[in-house]
From TrEMBL:
This is CENPP protein. Residues 6-33 form a coiled coil. Keywords: Coiled coil. PANTHER family: CENTROMERE PROTEIN P. One of its GO terms (cellular component) is chromosome, centromeric region. InterPro entries: CENP-P (IPR027801). Signal peptide: none annotated. It holds the Pfam family CENP-P. GO terms for biological process: CENP-A containing chromatin assembly. It comes from the Eukaryota.
Length: 190
């Protein structure tokens, strides 16, 4: 055998022996670390892992609960849209200001009720003190296709002053229904 080949084999054997020695030291370190922890510490680590696993499973359950709630809310919204004939075509929300106990959001909503289109723009001020949360609507602006009806203009002005969205939607629903009846009646006589 060639001397250079022998030398190469001996060098490789030395490298392998050093690697074995290093791995043996690492193995001893790992064994010492595992014996370093007491049974109590190991049990505490297991309990911490189990509680983390239980929290994750609860989160998973809450996600399925949220999905059920979302489906229920969508069904309720569909019913209300059929009942009131109010259909929202777009909604945008932008947070204007946020502090620890106060949030201001700007909302823009477009929609139709029967054949009347409307657009709302308002700010929602949400204040939280201790356990109570209160909301106030400010800067309400309503744009409606009402033709030249002065009563609607007065109603819209009063609603903007008071910021009463519930009253607006209730009145819009009944006004739009009768507006449709009047329109179809006038078309019939033309």
């Amino acid at each position: 055998m060639d001397i250079s080949k022998c030398q190469a084999y001996e060098d490789e054997i030395k490298l392998l022996e050093e690697e074995i020695k290093l791995l043996a030291e690492q193995c001893e370190d790992i064994q010492q670390e595992s014996t370093f922890y007491s049974e109590e510490e190991i049990l505490m680590a297991i309990k911490a892992f189990q509680s983390k696993f239980q929290r994750e499973s609860k989160e998973h359950e809450s996600r399925s609960d949220l999905k059920d709630q979302l489906e229920s809310l969508e069904a309720d919204l569909s019913f209300l849209m059929k009942f009131t004939h109010i259909q929202f075509t777009s909604h945008s929300k932008r947070t204007v200001e946020r502090t620890r106990n106060r949030t201001v959001q700007k909302h823009r909503i477009s929609g139709k009720c029967h054949s009347l289109s409307f657009q709302l723009e308002f700010q929602l001020l949400e204040m939280q003190d201790k356990e109570k949360v209160s909301t106030v609507i400010t800067d309400l602006s309503i744009v409606m296709e009402s033709g030249e009806d002065s009563n609607v203009s007065k109603f819209v002005s009063r609603t903007e002053e008071h910021g009463d969205l519930l009253k607006f939607f209730r009145s819009l629903s009944s006004y739009a229904e009768w507006y449709e009846h009047r329109r179809s009646t006038f078309l019939h006589f033309k």
